[in-house]
Design brief:
Layout lengths: L7 H22 L11 H5 L7 E4 L5 E5 L3 E2 L9 H11 L11 H12 L9 H10 L14 H22 L2 H11 L6 E2 L1 H9 L8 H10 L12 H17 L5 H8 L19 H9 L1 H7 L9 E4 L3 H26 L16 H6 L3 H9 L4 H8 L3 E5 L6 E5 L1 H9 L2 E8 L6 E5 L17 E2 L5 H10 L7 E3 L5 E4 L5 E4 L12 E3 H7 L2 H11 L1 H11 L17 E2 L1 H12 L3 E3 L4 E5 L5 E4 L4 E3 L3 H16 L21 E6 L6 E6 L4 E8 L9 H4 L1 H17 L29 E2 L22 E2 L17
Parallel strand pairs: 1-5, 3-4, 23-24
Antiparallel strand pairs: 1-2, 5-17, 6-7, 8-9, 8-22, 10-15, 11-14, 12-13, 16-19, 17-18, 20-21, 21-22
Helix pairs in contact: 3-9, 3-10, 5-6, 5-7, 9-10, 10-11, 14-26, 19-21, 19-22, 19-24, 20-24, 22-23
């Protein structure tokens, strides 16, 4: 049809236009899969960015981020003019004059290249097209992309097409803003805000000309001109950008001379994965949202969400500071316990042979060295015993030391760890979550992931079961030896004869409240026999324990493994009038535009009769109020003004492996666990290792600090009055006890009078520390 056109030049022009149209259609439609993917009209209207999600406390403090690309987009008016000037002067001086493709600039770059000054010809819009739609990635290439020379031509043509589409849809300000929000600045910083915070700890509207020049200079090569890795090269490139700014009139000659002499002045803020951005709380929220993310098909690492937790940042800070202070002292105590001895011991106290060697064999580095040295284990261990420079965690901060791999392993396995959680028992809101001593070195979360023997903190479920079976807090049992004959799951007959913590029996009749307060194993065992251990398991599960519990006679003494999370949830049931609440860690989630996506509220269910629930809070107070109650160490802290009432329960597992404390007040339920991750490493005696000496001080010190800040909503005061009639008898004061001890003893005389008797009991000489509970479970 072109032959009809007589004018040769017109005919060639029409052929060229027609060919161009066909080429455009073929590329756009990916004809015969030759050209690969091209952005559609929808892509241009709704460009997809991977935006990091932000994690906040309930009081709006940013505590972490989730990202694959650490990106936080900002608006045009939030970007420093220095950044805009540096970018245009360096990358695209004709940015405001072209329509996406700058043929004049392209011609100039070719001429400059021929003269030996290599310059790129891509405009900012073209680079945005590449960043947004990955036009140079393999997945964007068609069959022609397999041909090296042709591939670059097709890629460039697609970038031009996309650039024209972007220019037709967006204003120049929008384009340059999108570009700065998408470009990579190395060190996993994507976008100008992340880069500004990462390298200078400033918002992008606060950057000076020199700082802007550093960042824009990186765009030529993010690794080569990285100011952290290559400061000299970065400074050299910065000065090139400054010279370009001077040439284009954005800064004066005098400013250029002055600026070019300045140092880089970095203020590195580097919250990468595994770094300062990582925390127990951040990991816990990620796990918490797994099901929600799956159900809503939302990836929190790319969706740009604003996630608000129930955590109070001020309470959290108090808890973390308290844990750090107390754990430092506890670690010194454990170190002094063993001094130059090996701390890993079996039940008999003997050193476990080959303990460290067995641990080393599980390390990835061991497998790598074995492969390198042809499975010569002796050679590998020789290498792993050679000292080398390394950085280790200590309570005095990270330290540079010369230490072998074996010695560093010994250092880390011998560290005490902890888990602490505090929760509003009525709303179910988790206020404090301390998963361990340092998330960088110990990833395992000791609030929700770790499960350890609960010790005597489990006993309240025995006493609740007794109340549910018709007993009253004033009912009495005799503290005497007890023998339980039972048949195990294998059908074999067994005998269980539990002992008290001090291995003594007073042969005294004690009320249930007093017996629980003193944490007597003998009376707990008798109640277990009378109500049935199956019922105790059912009670614990009903209150909030979700772990599997072996139904055995020793269940009431805490022989099963549970988590801090479960224990706090279960104790909250007592305070909440017998209603079990579902703990919540996340309250609200907003999308990137500030629109509320979802909110979370607790669910509650009546699982315990309100009368029995109130009586349990009264009995928990008994550990402080009753003679020789196991929580009486709390009197050493400033906790009891303004008629304040506190309830709680200590717990210590066999051989002092685990120390627990569960505390309840009118506003807060909290749980603390302390122990080594390696259960073969433990304290030697009750004076150093029981729960009242390890976990209780952490709780007490935290509450003491918390009470000094009433604005946080936790104040001193009495427990709530019962909202139902209490028909069971519960007010039966225990007898006053006089303990005859040497004059230098620290033991004190209890001043609780017995309204029913004037008898004064004289007890054997036992140190105060030995009267708290230790679970010696014998079968």
């Amino acid at each position: 049809m072109f032959k009809r056109v007589k004018n040769k030049f017109v005919r060639y022009f029409l052929i060229a236009v027609y060919s161009l149209i066909i080429l455009l259609c073929a590329v756009q439609l990916n004809f015969l899969w030759l050209f690969g993917y091209s952005p559609t009209k929808k892509d241009i209207v709704l460009p997809t960015l991977h935006i990091s999600s932000e994690l906040y406390t309930a009081d709006s403090v940013l505590i972490g981020r989730y990202f694959e690309e650490d990106r936080d987009p900002v608006g045009y008016d939030s970007i420093s003019e220095n950044i805009l000037n540096a970018l245009i002067a360096t990358e695209d001086i004709r940015f405001y004059k072209h329509n996406g493709v700058d043929f004049i600039g392209l011609f100039s770059s070719v001429v400059s290249t021929l003269r030996g000054d290599t310059r790129g010809g891509s405009t900012i819009t073209q680079q945005l097209a590449k960043n947004l739609y990955r036009t140079r990635y393999n997945q964007s290439q068609g069959l022609l992309g397999r041909i090296p020379g042709v591939r670059m031509g097709v890629t460039k043509f697609k970038e031009w097409m996309t650039a024209y589409k972007l220019e037709s849809k967006y204003e120049k300000e929008q384009i340059i803003t999108m570009y700065l929000n998408t470009v990579s600045f190395s060190n996993n910083a994507y976008g100008i805000k992340s880069a500004s915070l990462r390298y200078f700890n400033k918002q992008p509207n606060q950057l000076s000309a020199t700082e802007a020049a550093v960042l824009i200079g990186m765009l030529k090569g993010t690794t080569l001109y990285n100011p952290i890795r290559n400061p000299d090269k970065s400074k050299e490139r910065r000065n090139v950008v400054l010279r370009q700014m001077q040439k284009e009139g954005y800064i004066s000659e005098e400013q250029y001379i002055s600026f070019s002499k300045e140092p880089l002045n970095l203020n590195v803020n580097n919250p990468e994965r595994g770094g300062a951005n990582d925390s127990y709380l951040r990991a816990a929220v990620e796990k918490w949202l797994e099901k929600w993310s799956e159900e809503h098909d939302i990836d929190i690492y790319t969706a740009g969400l604003k996630i608000y937790t129930t955590i109070d940042s001020r309470m959290q800070q108090l808890a973390e500071e308290t844990v750090a202070k107390q754990m430092k002292g506890l670690q010194e105590r454990l170190d002094n316990t063993w001094r130059n001895e090996e701390p890993w011991r079996d039940k008999s106290g003997a050193v476990i042979p080959g303990f460290l060697e067995d641990k080393v064999r599980k390390l990835p580095v061991f497998a790598s060295l074995m492969e390198q040295f042809n499975n010569d284990e002796e050679k590998v261990f020789q290498i792993m015993r050679e000292p080398k420079k390394m950085k280790i965690f200590t309570w005095d901060g990270d330290k540079e030391v010369e230490m072998s791999t074996m010695d560093s392993l010994k250092h880390y396995v011998s560290m005490l760890n902890t888990g602490m959680m505090a929760m509003d028992p009525y709303k179910g809101e988790i206020k404090v979550w301390v998963g361990g001593i340092n998330h960088r070195y110990y990833k395992f979360d000791h609030v929700n992931q770790a499960k350890r023997q609960a010790g005597s903190t489990f006993k309240p479920f025995v006493y609740l079961t007794a109340l549910e079976n018709g007993m009253e807090p004033c009912d009495k049992y005799e503290d005497k030896p007890v023998r339980l004959d039972f048949v195990n799951k294998q059908g074999e007959k067994e005998v269980w004869e539990p002992k008290n913590a001090d291995w003594n029996f007073s042969y005294r009749n004690m009320s249930l409240r007093w017996a629980m307060a003193r944490s007597l194993n003998t009376i707990t065992a008798q109640i277990t026999r009378d109500v049935g251990w199956d019922k105790i398991v059912e009670t614990a599960h009903r209150c909030g324990i979700e772990s599997h519990l072996e139904s055995v006679p020793s269940v009431g003494l805490g022989s099963n493994d549970v988590s801090v999370f479960e224990m706090v949830n279960a104790y909250a049931t007592f305070m909440n009038e017998g209603k079990r609440v579902e703990p919540i860690l996340v309250s609200k989630i907003y999308d990137n535009n500030g629109k509320l996506i979802t909110s979370f509220q607790t669910k509650e269910k009546q699982v315990v009769d309100p009368e029995n629930a109130w009586l349990m809070t009264y009995m928990l107070r008994g550990t402080i109020e009753e003679p020789e109650g196991t929580s009486q160490a709390l009197w050493e802290w400033d906790l009891f003004g303004n008629e304040n009432q506190v309830g709680g329960k200590t717990g210590t597992s066999s051989d002092y492996v685990d120390g627990w404390y569960m505390g309840v007040t009118k506003d807060l339920v909290a749980g603390v666990w302390v122990g080594c991750d390696e259960q073969s490493i433990r304290f030697k005696s009750s004076q150093t290792g029981e729960g009242s000496k390890t976990a209780l001080p952490i709780y007490a010190a935290f509450m003491e600090e918390l009470y000094q800040q009433p604005e946080l909503g936790v104040t001193k005061g009495k427990f709530p009055d019962p909202k139902v009639e209490i028909k069971k008898k519960y007010n039966c004061p225990s007898p006053r006890i006089r303990v005859e001890v040497p004059s230098d003893s620290t033991a004190v005389e209890s001043d609780v009078e017995d309204e029913q008797t004037e008898t004064l009991f004289t007890l054997p000489e036992v140190e105060e520390s030995e009267r708290t509970d230790i679970n010696e479970i014998e079968r």
